[in-house]
User: Fold this.
Amino acid sequence: MSILSVISKVFVQNGLVFSFMLIGIITLITYKISALTKGKIHGSAIAIFAGLVLAYIGGASTGGSKGLASIPLFAGVGMMGGGMFRDFAIVSTAFGADLREIKKCGMVGVVSLLLGVLSSFIVGCVMAYFMGYPDVVSMVTIGAGVCTFVVGPVTGAALGASSDVIAISIAAGVVKSVAVMILTPLVKDVVGLYTPKSAMIFGGLMGTSSGTAAGLAAVDPKLVPYGAMTATFYTGTGCLLCPSVLYLAVKAIMG
Amino acid sequence: MAIYGVALLAACYIVGIVLGDLFGVAVGVKANVGGVGFAMLFLILLSNHGIDHGWLDKKAQDGIAFWSAMYIPIVVAMSSIQNVVAALKGGPLAIGSGLVGVAVAFAFIPIIARFSDAEKDEVK
Assistant:
């Protein structure tokens, strides 16, 4: 057995530990790049963007759906970046969060949650209508997909949408989550994303847990728990409203 | 010991996720409704209680703080396993509706923030 295959076997068998090393190296490089820009672009924003580029390379070179983790050598990154560790780490950020801040904007959180689901849904429906999917089930499924890539397929399955429509709804949700990751640090000044309250509004409006988490981490890690707090209710709210009330509403409007 | 903090965090996480799943079943939704949010709420309440009453010492707090510091690296790992290829290949409808959806949501942030500020001023 050659040295190379021994090494790659060790990497694969110890995937999670290997991914700690790998992500550490990526972080080191991207924070050095951030220092070159004199901190104008935050290191975490560059690191997250680098992650997305690696995800593209991994997906494009293997045809797999799990980004970098599609390459067997890097499968351990899939565990480190998977739902369990993500949610565990998100919960840990609540340590040190101020309960008074959260109480203060409870109502605003609910309003932004409903507006977030509704606005994404309407955008998806209208665009589906004008871009070749004018039937009610397809419109609602794609509208639900713009909410998040979980709400889309859940709604589509409930309403009996075709598989290509469900695929579009998932893709729309993924585009949204990637766009939130990239755009949030760029528009933070325009929309005034500085306070715990604005972070809670942001989480409620965007809804994508991964997008919200990465976007806020790139702006100010202190804001993460507040945004994550509201975003966690978004997918559930979307799954609740889209196949029921919102479907009936669209059906009534379309006749 | 550090493991006490990690165990507290894990307990909050598990109980929160179970509640979220049960809540989802109760409202007839095939998803976890607010599980992470419940877990965060428990952690805030319990860690504050523990610090105030002395049963959560510095070492145990460090156990929680470690995971909170690992948050951004985990997010970097998470971004590297997104299906970016599918997002770009999803065609103009998927890309267009995803982007417009985000733009509309961003536009609402300052509007809701201002609205809620005005509301508070009236109360005063």
Summary: The radius of gyration of chain A is 20 Å. DSSP finds 14 helices and no strands in chain A. Chain A touches chain B through 110 residues (CB under 8 Å). Residues 95 and 216 of chain A are 17 Å apart (CA to CA).
